[in-house]
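Before the break, one more example. Copy the sequence into your notebook; we will annotate it together after we see the structure.
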Amino acid sequence: GRRRACGEGSSELATRRRALMQVGIKLPIEVLWTGHDAVPAGKTTLDMRPPDRLLSRGIRHVTMDQLKRQAAARALEHVRDGMKLGLGTGSTAKHFVELLGEKVAGGMRVVGVPTSEATRADAERCKIPLTTLDQVDRLDLTVDGADEVDPALNLIKGGGGALLREKIVAAASDRMIVIADETKWVDVLGRFPLPVEVIPFGLAATQRAMAAAFAQCGVSGQMGVRKGRDGHVFVTDGGHWIVDAHLGRIPDAPRLAGLLNAIPGVVESGLFIGFATMVILAGANGIRVVERR
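Here is what the structure looks like once it is written out:
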């Protein structure tokens, strides 16, 4: 059957949309999410391009990987020739790097700063020219994933273990676009364990100070040093360890971020407060774009 744009309803509206789309005009729809998925009104659009599935009998379900790639493709539309880009880390950001590599092969001129050694390897494989923050003053745009996003566009990042370099690169960027599947949108941060990058020396003292910071914010939970697939302690690209804190809910993420950053043994936390300027969420019903007010 014919692919239908998400939200297609009355015959009059459908006719107008088809007429516009036939001449290459994309028609965004202003939408307001409700319930536990509430997002700021007036700054959210639902992209009319349907996801990669057939809305008919025999639906081919969209996989999580396909959703991530759709979000990455939408972010790529914000990249212009000559840009200096921050290249994020993780499964969703990897899709962006691969799609960017196709653009570079087609003649687009960009340079990128990778946020991890894994991303560096992916970018080199895709023949994307790379640079460093020692060689450029500012980046035009960083595109990265997230483990959680709240309605204020604050984030939890660090599930892939690259949170320190990710935050350094994001802070050096004029804009940050976060790409994710819609399951990453939450009312309140904290369901995903909060990664905190720490110095191995004095770990017990650092964890006691972290527990005190949690208590000041009215939260608590188990903490554990992250292990790698081989069962040994996971070591970041910077040579540090990561403590994952299972807090459940973080009602005041900005306050907790400040308290954690004041602890001497903490290198950086996975709370990204005020960095994201746009979030692109891919779901079964299309692409949602949320911009910071």
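The CA atoms of residues 77 and 250 lie 33 Å apart. The first helix runs from residue 11 to 22. Try to locate both features in your own notes.
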